[in-house]
């Protein structure tokens, strides 16, 4: 009996030719595994294509709800963003896909897992560190690090020469990743930084200048940091993300053009569409302004950045990430309430919020009189707060 290799399969350019390449270069039984994390695909066609390309069997694993609840919602609670822009759509999906690949490898008794990540990208790290964190005995086959194909153009030539249908051409050569959270675009004319990216590439979003002329208002209710309702209607996680993506998409929300620092050392440019996720992050952040006290809020800002870096760097299955989740869960205990947002031509504006745990008290914060705040108390506070600087000034004067 042949040894088996589980191939992370999407039906895109790389994995389509890899299934054929594995069959012709290894004496292995190729088991394809396509993990559905909410990408808009014809999975029946993917099944047929995988078998035609060389796989003996294919698994289609629907992990969309798990992706949202166990990965994306943790990111929302953390306000995890990489380098101030990237909402980590690909980064959140990779550890879950790695987990599913290992599960299929165990079910099939496979010794190998193969992926289609390039030798220049972050995803090779995310997949391989994720797999090793679950089962370090599994061996990795990474074709882009060992075969003679050097570019996407070469890959297209290989596909054409072997009669393999692929979803890209040399004219439409963007490398894309799509799931229910985002769509990423890389390569092609984006590699020249002088080029403005073309809005024609968008798959989830209309350009802001072509968005609706009237604003859209949306109310999002959170419970302990987790979104539960939109406009008063309780929705399951998948329906919620689909609705937010529709609202964000038609209002031109959530497109970023980012020159990022890759984990592997180089800078790269990507255009990311995250319409629904951008709305969720904005609403959640506003509710935290209302419900989390100052010192915790400020420390959480540091944690948010670190959390984003961990996710980006493929360290999901780490003690540090788990420990940060415990801290974040504590901070979210009272992040409950409703936030109203105004969406208009690529912009998100706060339009009202309320919470039973609001730390804002109108009678204290207003300029009027208050039983809990005496204006005269400020004098003593200022004297104590400014004392070190007075002493420093006195010393400088004496010198």
Automatic annotation (TrEMBL):
Transmembrane segments: none annotated. The gene is argG. This is Argininosuccinate synthase. It is found in: Cytoplasm. Its EC number is 6.3.4.5. It holds the Pfam family Arginosuc_synth. ATP binds at residues 8-16, 116. Pathway: Amino-acid biosynthesis; L-arginine biosynthesis; L-arginine from L-ornithine and carbamoyl phosphate: step 2/3. L-aspartate binds at residues 118, 122-123. L-citrulline binds at residues 86, 91, 122, 126, 175, 184, 260, 272. Its main location: cytoplasm. Belongs to the argininosuccinate synthase family. Type 1 subfamily. Gene3D superfamilies: Argininosuccinate synthetase, chain A, domain 2 (3.90.1260.10), HUPs (3.40.50.620), Single helix bin (1.20.5.470). GO terms for molecular function: argininosuccinate synthase activity; ATP binding. The keyword Phosphoprotein does not apply. Residues 174-391 form the Arginosuccinate synthase C-terminal domain. It catalyses: L-citrulline + L-aspartate + ATP = 2-(N(omega)-L-arginino)succinate + AMP + diphosphate + H(+). GO terms for cellular component: cytoplasm.
């Amino acid at each position: 009996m042949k040894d088996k290799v589980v191939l992370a399969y999407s039906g895109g350019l790389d994995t389509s030719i890899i299934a054929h390449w594995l069959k012709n270069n290894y004496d292995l039984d190729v088991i394809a595994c396509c993990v559905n994390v909410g990408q808009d695909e014809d999975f029946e066609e993917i099944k047929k294509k995988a078998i035609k390309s060389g796989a003996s069997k294919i698994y289609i694993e629907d992990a969309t709800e798990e992706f949202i609840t166990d990965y994306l919602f943790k990111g929302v609670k953390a306000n995890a963003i990489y380098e101030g822009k990237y909402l980590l759509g690909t980064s959140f999906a990779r550890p879950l896909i790695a987990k599913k690949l290992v599960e299929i490898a165990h079910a099939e008794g496979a010794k190998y897992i193969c992926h289609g990540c390039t030798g220049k990208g972050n995803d090779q790290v995310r997949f391989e560190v994720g797999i090793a964190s679950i089962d370090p005995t599994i061996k990795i086959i990474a074709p882009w690090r060992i075969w003679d194909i050097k570019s996407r153009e070469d890959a297209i030539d290989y596909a054409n020469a072997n009669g393999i249908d692929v979803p890209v051409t040399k004219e439409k050569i963007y490398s894309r990743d799509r799931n229910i959270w985002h769509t990423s675009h890389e390569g092609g004319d984006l590699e020249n930084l002088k080029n403005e990216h073309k809005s024609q590439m968008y798959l989830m979003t209309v350009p802001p200048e072509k968005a609706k002329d009237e604003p859209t208002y949306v109310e999002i209710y959170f419970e302990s940091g987790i979104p539960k309702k939109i406009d008063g209607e309780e929705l399951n996680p998948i329906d919620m993300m689909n609705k937010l993506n529709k609202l964000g998409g038609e209002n031109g929300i959530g497109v970023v053009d980012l020159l990022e620092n890759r984990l592997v050392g180089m800078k790269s440019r990507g255009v990311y569409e995250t319409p629904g996720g951008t709305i969720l992050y904005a609403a959640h952040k506003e509710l935290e302004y209302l419900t989390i006290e100052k010192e915790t809020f400020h420390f959480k800002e540091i944690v948010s950045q670190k959390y984003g870096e961990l996710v980006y760097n493929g360290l999901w299955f780490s003690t540090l990430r788990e420990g940060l989740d415990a801290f974040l869960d504590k901070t979210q205990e009272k992040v409950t309430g409703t936030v109203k947002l105004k969406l208009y031509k690529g912009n998100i504006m706060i339009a009202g919020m309320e919470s039973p745990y609001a730390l804002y008290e109108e009678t204290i914060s207003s300029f009027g009189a208050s039983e809990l705040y005496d204006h005269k108390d400020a004098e003593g506070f200022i004297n104590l707060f400014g004392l070190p600087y007075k002493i420093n000034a006195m010393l400088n004067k004496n010198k």
